[in-house]
Design goal:
The chain is built from 11 helices and 14 strands. With about 350 residues, the chain is α/β, with parallel strands linked by helices. The chain has one domain: Alpha-Beta Horseshoe (pyruvate-formate lyase- activating enzyme). The protein has a 7-stranded parallel sheet with strand order 4-7-8-9-10-11-14. A 5-stranded mixed sheet has the order 2-1-3-6-5, covered by helices on one side. Helix 1 links the parallel strand 1 and strand 2. The longest helix has 18 residues. It is globular and about 55 Å long. The chain starts with about 25 loop residues before the first strand and ends with a strand. The structure holds iron/sulfur cluster. Iron/sulfur cluster binds next to loops.
């Protein structure tokens, strides 16, 4: 087990993570037949962002950049505004019944992000303007399952909070779900831009989860996302706005000083919460894991990463996607789980831990 020495870098002045503004925008012509498409076009023009029309949001070619790496970086700063044609939702077990598709792709540069492998050649950010159709489809799924509750996850393939200032789609979903006795919305974010959501009448039907980590992990491995302080402050605002709240501590990383890092994280979170216990607070814990494919992609995209991916130091586990994944050996897993669980219950004795995986 690591000692209580700290590898936290000296505190840097607090930064302000600005809302995302893409470098380039593509519109599908059909997108401009929807109010949201026009609203986004107006925003793009007001920001003087170059744009052009494209035939389909699935076929964006010719992104600038001499190397694959440059093209990847440019793609993550490219927004594609389209119409969602597939209104059959994917399953999103175990945390929700369905994934609700409002956006795909993300401007964050988390070294370990699974979107790098799942989105393959399409790392650009797509947002869908026909939220009315998407909501109608959700309504059908809800009605089919009554009297069971149906949960929808809005962040399976994206971080929609980071796009809310452009689309307003989460606001629409939260408003819709507030009136659905049998429907629930949930999403997870690494962005702190939650102000547009604070005054909504959510009816307690939307659970907002923050993906959080030690300051060290956020600084080292999560560029282009909101900082440790910003996320903690945003979580406090969401708790005060009465939303069901959750935290995903992921990926939990073993580094020299991890105990101090995770102890600080839980202490700071507790300080940001309202005085009265937060109702129905949940924690999810996910240790860092990787596959061989992910490791190869990460080393190509983030060649200087300090992310430790030494297969010799890991335990092999068969994954459900037909590939081995590499997790920490049992002794390290147990140490991480026990230490962080104790800190959670020390500061949040009323919280529920959903799982450690
Ligand atoms: S914020 Fe989330 S979706 Fe975006 S790059 Fe980071 S891990 Fe991936």
């Amino acid at each position: 087990m690591a000692t209580l020495t700290t590898a936290e870098p000296p505190a840097k002045p607090r930064t302000h993570t600005k809302p995302f503004v893409p470098d380039f925008v593509y519109f599908e012509p059909g997108a401009l037949e929807y109010p949201k498409g026009i609203q986004i076009m107006d925003w793009v023009k007001s920001q003087n962002i170059p744009f052009k029309m494209t035939t389909s949001h699935n076929r964006i070619t010719g992104l600038p950049g001499d190397t694959e790496l440059q093209q990847y970086k440019n793609a993550k700063r490219t927004l594609v505004v389209g119409v969602r044609k597939t209104l059959t939702f994917d399953q999103s077990k175990p945390s929700a019944e369905y994934a609700i598709p409002i956006s795909t792709g993300c401007m964050g540069h988390c070294h370990y992000c699974y979107l790098q492998t799942t989105l393959g050649a399409k790392p650009y950010i797509r947002v869908y303007v026909n939220t009315g159709d998407i909501i109608s489809a959700a309504k059908k799924y809800i009605d089919e399952r009554i009297p069971e509750i149906t949960r929808f996850e809005a962040a399976c393939t994206s971080d929609p909070v980071g796009l809310e200032h452009i689309t307003g789609s989460l606001t629409e979903l939260i408003n819709f779900m507030a009136g659905e006795e049998y429907g629930r919305l949930r999403f997870v974010t690494k962005f702190h831009h939650v102000d547009p959501l604070l005054d909504l009448k959510h009816g307690g039907h939307t659970r907002i989860r923050f993906s959080i980590n030690s300051d060290y992990v956020i600084r080292q491995f999560e560029p282009a996302t909101s900082s440790f302080e910003e996320r903690i402050e945003a979580a406090g605002k969401i708790a005060k706005a009465g939303y069901p709240l959750g935290f995903i501590i992921a990926p939990i990383i073993w580094y020299d000083g991890w105990e101090q890092g995770y102890a600080d994280l839980l202490q700071r979170l507790a300080q940001a919460m309202p005085d009265e216990p937060v109702k129905d607070l949940t924690f999810e814990m996910i240790q860092h894991r990787f596959t061989k494919t992910a490791k190869a992609t990460i080393e190509k995209r983030y060649p200087k990463t300090k992310l430790e991916m030494d297969m010799e130091k890991r335990k092999k586990k068969w994954g459900r996607y037909g590939q081995y994944k590499y997790v920490y050996p049992d002794e390290q897993q147990n140490a991480l789980r026990e230490f962080i669980t104790e800190r959670i219950f020390e500061h949040f004795p009323y919280a529920k831990i959903d799982y450690f995986t």
